[in-house]
Amino acid sequence: MADENASTSEFDFTGKTIVVTGANSGVGLAAAVGFARSGGRVALVGRDQERLDAAVAQVRQLAGAGAQPTGYRADFASLAEVRKLAEALRDGYPSIDVLANNAGGVNPRRVTTVDGHELTMEANHLAPFLLTHLLRDRLGAAARVVNTASDAHRAGRLDPKDLDSTRRYRSFVVYGSSKQANILFAAEAARRWPEILSFSYHPGVVRSRFGRANPAMRVFYRFMPGLVSPEGGADTLLWLAGAPADQLTNGGYYAKRRLRQPTRPTGDPKFAAQLWEASTAAVGLS
After folding, report:
1. 139 with 99: CB under 8 angstroms?
2. Which of 37, 90, 122, 219 has the greatest number of CB atoms lying within 10 Å of its CB?
């Protein structure tokens, strides 16, 4: 594995367009820097305009004078904003080579979005599911979609018939369920869209602003010894985006650049198909 403190990919992304969601900080920002330093044209997506502007400036500074990153503000707690984001990206780029579905979070208590969905599931799964579909015709042959998942999927109890956790809400279980969804989405996309390479990966437990809504988690993710740096967390994302296709398994779940077997039923194609249909209905796709 590459040095976890490196911010430059060993792959050449010159001339390629890369969209990174959740790029204001952490893994997303580190990945954006890596892509830009390696020649990529990077679109950073974040929900806070001030922090997004700062992230774009940081990518430009760290990647050098040739970098031309662009920022796009969107809150994944609103599917209407996801649709506006997709429209803006479609207007800005005739083709997209890499879509890094990295945005996500966890909430200490159940929150319902303006769309009527549970917030964690909408932000972590339904929003990127919708965004990927809306950008589908911009993802040409050999394009790649990389979903930031987590080994926290092992704690999930995903139910496609109850994506909004209406019966019982346990914060980390719901988060784990959303990470199951990220893995299942990548696997099913590989089956339905075989011309596109789709992956999910575990970035490690990363020192970041993740979980900031929960005071205990905020302390853990900032100060716990042994956590991975954002650059280390972004390493597998950069690798999946750039490694030769014959070295990768389409639809696979990875950690530390190695193919991993997710828990059952997360590896079940029938379960993945059920989630796909439920997600399609939840976001209003025909």
Report:
1. yes
2. 122
What are the pLDDT digits (tens) for 197-248?
999 999 998 655 554 555 555 544 454 556 889 999 999 999 999 999 999 9
Q: Which residues contact 41 (CB under 8 A, 6 or more apart)?
A: 15, 16, 17, 18, 68, 69
Question: Could you give the CA distance from residue 57 to residue 17 in angstroms, rounded to a whole number?
Answer: 18
One-letter amino acid of 18: I
Q: What is the signed CA dihedral for 190, 193, 199, 200, rounded to 10 degrees?
A: -80
pTM (two decimals): 0.91
How would you class 67 by CB atoms within 10 Å of its CB: exposed for 0-12, middle for 13-18, buried for 19 or more?
buried
Exposure string of 271-283, with b = 16+ CB inside 10 Å and e = fewer, is bbbbbbebbeebb
Catalytic residues: 175
What whole-number distance in Å separates Cα of residue 11 and Cα of residue 34? 10
- Report how far residue 51's alpha carbon sits from residue 32's, in angstroms, rounded to the nearest whole number: 14
* Domains along the chain with CATH numbers: 17-282 (3.40.50.720)
Q: What is the pLDDT of residues 150-181, one digit of tens each?
A: 999 999 999 999 999 999 899 999 999 999 99
**DSSP alpha helix (H) spans, 46-156:** 49-63, 79-92, 119-121, 127-134
